[in-house]
Amino acid sequence: MKQISNISKLCKIFLLFLAHCYHNTFYVEKIIDGDTFVIQSGYRVRILGIDAPEKGDPFWEDSKKMLQKIILHKKVRLEYGIRKYDKYNRILAYVFVDGEFVNQKLVEEGMAWVYVIPPNFKYSHRLIIVQERAERLRKGIWRRPYYVASKRSKKFHAFYCPSAKKIISKNKRIFRSKQEALKEGYKPSKDCNP
After folding, report:
1. 48 within some domain
2. pTM of the prediction?
3. Predicted confidence (pLDDT) per residue in 114-125, tens digit
């Protein structure tokens, strides 16, 4: 009985693989946050090349709402990266709706920042240029950058630093400025030099 269950699972995975190879247009059913959504098959898609605030972080709701406005209940075209799945089994893809590059739109409006997951580097140069412009114009998250620290250490990180993502929610401290973090006795991390 267990063997039949395993064969059934393998068949489902194979069918999903075939669907992804030949059909890359999907209907968006639900938005999880500013960089993750669910397609009609129930699979989660993680938008490649960007990162957005996590639940509880400043701009989380704004980022999520912008993604909802752009793609919720619409058909999107997914362009897969070299690596098609992340460690959470989410599909990794660049996203297009009505000819618009969604990843770029989110960075352009300051609702996400560039975050490359190797080996998926396609469009990274384009996204970096757009982010630099959003930073100069102080759009979205660049209007009020924030800093993140763990309650268990005395180091703080810029919100976009990969080390900041490793801090679990219950240990996370958010600072509105470097001065606030320094005043509380935290020191800048050497990882990202905030």
Report:
1. yes
2. 0.75
3. 998 888 889 999
